[in-house]
Amino acid sequence: MDKTHLLVLVGGLLFSxxxxxxxxxxxxxxxLMCMELMLNGVNLTLVSFAQRTGTTEGAVLVxxxxxxAGAEIAIAIPILLLLARARKTLDVQAYAELKG
Amino acid sequence: xxESALLYFFSAAAVGSSLAMLVVRHPMRVALALxxxxxxxxxxxxxxxxxxxxxxxxxxYVGAVMVFxxxxxxxxDARDRAFSRFGKFLAPGGIGLVALAFVFGYALSGNEAPAxxxxxxxxxxxxxxxxxxxxxxxxxxLVSVLLVAAVVAAIAVVKIxxxxxx
Amino acid sequence: xxxxxxxxxxxxGFLVNGLVGRRLGRxxxxxxxxxxxxxxxxxxxxxxxxxxxxxxxxxxxAYTWAAFGGQPFEIAFQFDRLSAVMTLIVTGIGxxxxxxxxxxxxxxxxxxxxxxxLNLFLFFMLLLVLGKSLLVLFTGWEGVGLxxxxxxxxxxxxxxxxxxxxxxxxxxxxxxxxxxxxMFLLYEAVGTLDMQAINAAFASASPPAVSASLVGLLLFIGxxxxxxxxxxxxxxxxxxxxxxxxxxxxxxxxxxxAGVYMTARLSPIYMLAPEASQAIAAVGAATAxxxxxxxxxxxxxxxxxxxxxxxxxxxxxxxxxVGAYGxxxxxxxxxxxxxxxxxxxxxxxxxxxxGEQDVRKMGGLARRIPVTFATFxxxxxAIAGIPPLAGFFSKDEILWFALSSAHGGSAVLFAVAxxxxxxxxxxxFRLLWLTFFGAPRMSKExxxxxxxxxxxxxxxxxxxxxxxxxxxxxxxxxxxEPMFALPPVKEGLDSLxxxxxxxxxxxxxxxxxxAWHVFGDLRRAESMRTRFAAIYSVLAAKYYVDxxxxxxxxxxxxxxxxxxxxxxxxxALLDGTLDGMARLARRTAGVLAxxxxxxxxxxxxxxxxxxxxxxxWMSHV
Lengths: 100, 166, 621
Known about the structure:
By secondary structure, chain A is mostly helical.
């Protein structure tokens, strides 16, 4: 198979693994890291298509995703820290207060 | 020839380290697995000829995001042996993973467009910056606003945190 | 216009007194309430003269109510000989009773309401007797039922009295069901409800293709309800809960006679229906006897008169049953006079006794309220059938035709009727004796207050007593002969006419003597009562008919109402369905709310499932 096909598959696979990791793991920080993995999967897909079509938009978009990922992590971690401090544990199953 | 071998190698590395992320217990080791995955991705980007992107991957993701992550893990000693690795949804999650993987494969197995001759484009830093700051300057500005907002938010969170603590 | 005015004047009285009467004072209410019926009476007399001069019945068509199918439904009035007799009775005796009421109801706070209802009654009764089609008659029929309900339950704060009104209305409605069915059959067979047309159709050579007996019986069921025959008689004794003038007017002279009027008016149907006529005669005779036996044992003065009314109505139906329609109307006419006089006299006695109605507590009133006594005595003699008072003539004719009519007269009928006549004389003189003779048995307090009634009451009593005395000389059957031919006499019985007359006189005198003997000396009455204690208690309890109805009808209906309709139908079924739907909604919501666990990972799992599904679907489309 050609490059693009393979890379898109890999990207999809990374995304799936990341999503599964968020669902499966119990530690909050590990969940965050799996979310980063998801972003990376998407990034890979973007890059492979950008390389294939040869336009500059692809690269620019990838760069924007980088920036957003950085900003996101900068906020997510402090929030998570506050939450962990409030609940005194990193176990996400202790955070289930919004139940109906 | 060597190019495709490397490609396969880096892809396998990326997938392998991601799978490791799923099963490893210690958060620090999970972080290291993630770093490995990211580095593999950077390698892939470089192989594709997008050097600037590869550099940015290492600089931003590994250099900033993961460093922050590691720092936090070490700070709060996230080992926390009180609970197990996996939550309630291990089985459904596993099934979901397999299902999603298969569906991806199936969805993408359809029409394979003929490999059109990709115009050899230079994705170096200079052309990239030129394009970024000329055509896509709007997004550049927006992104800087986003970063400012992020900084403000981070300070706010810290302030709230200190207020909470008294 | 005259006929309509006769009916509409009392209606105007109802509206005026009903709406503004209370504010305008008693004098105004009395003026309007009595004056308008008297005016109606004058108009009735004028119409009567016009009828006598011309000979043809007066007909006035007010307007067409509906026109579809064959014939239109018209609101029309007619004034022929039968209507003339009825209208004069209704307006004449009605006006007298209105005047009496001004004295009797003097101190009642509901004075204006009383006269309004009484005028309303007159309006509906006049609709009934003047109506040309069954539609107008039925409207009047229902209307007098309504007025009766309002007047029986006049003192509605007393729950028992209100219940009596309800009982009257409901029992009437049961009869009305039969009446309606009869009307439906008639309309289907003849194509119109106009009574003239119906009578013509049934009297013609080719009568309509409907069973005259069936129609006759159905209509008679309606008459049973209104005229208190077995088994629908139970409301009349309870109706004595109303003011006494009401009992006199409605439940003696006019409303209860509506059944007799209706069957007489539709006589061509009954002439073609021998089975129905026999049934009527049998029911009439049975009712007459049944009611007379109960009257012997009653102790409330008004209840005795109530059962007496039921009994006399039975006599009228015996006459109808054997084809002597004119004679039935004759008895209706004389009965109106003496029964009204008796009831109003009873009202005078009650007034004198400060409200006491139990005859066991009366006695010795003859000298103290002489006018009441005299008029009461005359009316009692009239009802017992002592010549030459009015009752003798009409009752004798009924007995004669009960024996000899070729359309159903028989010895059995005659025997029952004669026995009943004997009982009538007996219990009426018993009443006279217990009330007016002997030593006074009342408390000192009551005795002190005994006084004669005011002129408005005694004047009316005198007039009615005169009517009871000489009214019999007006030969109504002869007057009505052009409409109702007297039935032919069975062969060979012609010679028995005089003996029957002597027999009826003898019956009346034996009854008088018997009552004198037993009740002249109260100890003899007491000893008779203890000797026949078992029979006496059955009679005093009215043969337990009310209790029977209660067990057979009222209690099962209430049980069904409560357990089937309320508990099961309404609560379990309807409420249960609604509650069940609400509960279902709540439970479903509860089940669906389980998705909201607050666990982020569950939400993401669901999102993952969604993504898988979406991708699958997209790749398959």
